[in-house]
Design a protein that fits this description.
Order of helices and strands: EHHHEEEEEEEEE
Strand content: 25-35%
GO molecular function: DNA binding
Number of helices: 3
Largest sheet: 8 strands, antiparallel
InterPro entries: WRKY_dom (IPR003657), WRKY_dom_sf (IPR036576), WRKY_plant (IPR044810)
Keywords: DNA-binding, Nucleus, Transcription, Transcription regulation
Subcellular location: Nucleus
Organism: Flemingia macrophylla
DNA sequence: CGGATTTGACCCGCGC
DNA sequence: GCGCGGGTCAAATCCG
């Protein structure tokens, strides 16, 4: 299993213990740039700090990205949330999401173990894609982090995982990640992780 | 038997 | 206003 990402920093923190989902385990604003540093777009072009802040500034950028099927990684920072009213009527409201990160992962497994416990709550077929999209919620108490998992429509050997929200708890199996080692090829933009 | 998964129905936003 | 597509709900079903 390999994690591909771009990293524009020529002198990255050589911390070998890392997993994409752990990036979301903090609400610190300073980590936003770090998050974006690890994003990799479908076309292979790295979109780091600039593209991240761009997508958070205006809603028009969200519309542009969501309507452009070839650039799904320039992801939106707003989402629809359900609000239950007194009469049990459920209203939906668009809310800003503080953290949303999409990872492109080469893996045969769609539902890889990222240390958190997820409960599947939906599955949808996606237009123009032969592969279904699965929806998961974190099972942690009071934790409303969600993730979407789908196979790349162009290359089904890749899995697209979108994490949304910030965990309000530690990973149930933090120690598990001590086994993840970083495989550094010398080119950070094309480095990969492997699970051991 | 309880928790997880499946899956059809439903809701809402958006474009036409 | 209508249809489409994405996201969520919840009852039914599965499984350990």
């Amino acid at each position: 299993m390999e994690y591909y990402f771009g990293n524009p920093n020529p002198n990255p923190d050589p911390n070998p213990y890392f997993h994409p989902s752990t990036l979301l385990n903090t609400a610190s604003p300073s980590t936003e740039f770090m998050l974006s540093d690890y994003l990799m777009l479908e076309d292979g072009v790295e979109h780091h700090q600039e593209s991240w802040s761009q997508s958070t500034e205006t809603e028009s950028s969200e519309k542009a990205s969501s309507s452009d099927a070839t650039h799904g990684f320039a992801d939106a920072t707003s989402t629809i949330v359900n609000i239950k009213c007194k009469n049990n009527e459920i209203k939906r409201k668009k809310e800003e999401v503080s953290q949303r990160v999409t990872f492109k992962t080469r893996s045969q497994l769609e539902n890889m173990d990222d240390g958190y416990k997820w409960r599947k709550y939906g599955k949808k077929t996606v237009k123009n894609s032969p592969n279904p999209r699965n929806y998961y919620k974190c099972s942690g108490e009071g934790c409303c982090v969600k993730k979407r998992v789908e196979r790349d429509r162009d290359d089904s050997s890749y899995v697209l995982t979108t994490y949304e929200g910030v965990h309000n708890h530690e990973s149930p199996s933090t120690s598990y990640y001590s086994q993840i080692s970083l495989v550094h090829s010398g080119d950070w933009a094309n480095s990969s992780f492997s699970m051991q």
